[in-house]
Amino acid sequence: MKRIRSRTISERIGGFVREWSVPRQVAGQSSATKAAESSMSRGLRPRLEEADTVGTNICPYCAVGCAQLMYAKDGRVIHVEGDPRSPINQGTLCPKGAATLGLMTMPDRIDKVLYRAPHSDRWEEKPMDWAMDRIAHLVKRTRDETFVHKLPDGTIVNHTLGLGSLGGATLDNEENYLIKKLFSGGLGMVWIENQARV
């Protein structure tokens, strides 16, 4: 019994020494060769090999606009990294940008419309079409109730101070141009700002 037990311990120690990379490196094997490999590390494969689709994205966090590569498998994102082709971030991401995968896949992320009626104590799930129609209705109603055609001195202003817009930092110039035209020209908004300038 003692012999079997001691053999097992010696086999374990021998196996550990064979797997441990330090003795191979001390013996003169270069870490550029396979001196640092173990049987476990030889079996590891990068997660990106599983991806069947690679798309591009702009990081949603700030005004810098870092480019990202999004790796997906079966329609689900499995990895996010910086896009090395971008002149802005050249493949790097800050900690917030590197956490984009967690933002997209965390189980607590709300991915449906929740509505709480005035004076209600609970949230209701609503369809997206309902939410878009409600937003349009409330914007029109607020604009109609607060629209000023002329000031008391007769100056024509055609504006409303009852609505405002705060754009996101990842909107491009074309999107900001359209927002400005729609909100100031179409709706008469005066307060139009962008998070990139705040």
Automatic annotation (TrEMBL):
This is 4Fe-4S Mo/W bis-MGD-type domain-containing protein. Keywords: 4Fe-4S, Iron, Iron-sulfur, Metal-binding, Oxidoreductase. SUPFAM superfamilies: Formate dehydrogenase/DMSO reductase, domains 1-3. PROSITE patterns: 4FE4S_MOW_BIS_MGD. Pfam families: Molybdop_Fe4S4. Its cofactor is [4Fe-4S] cluster. It comes from the Bacteria. Its main location: other. Belongs to the prokaryotic molybdopterin-containing oxidoreductase family. It is found in: Cell envelope. Residues 52-108 form the 4Fe-4S Mo/W bis-MGD-type domain. InterPro entries: Mopterin_OxRdtase_4Fe-4S_dom.
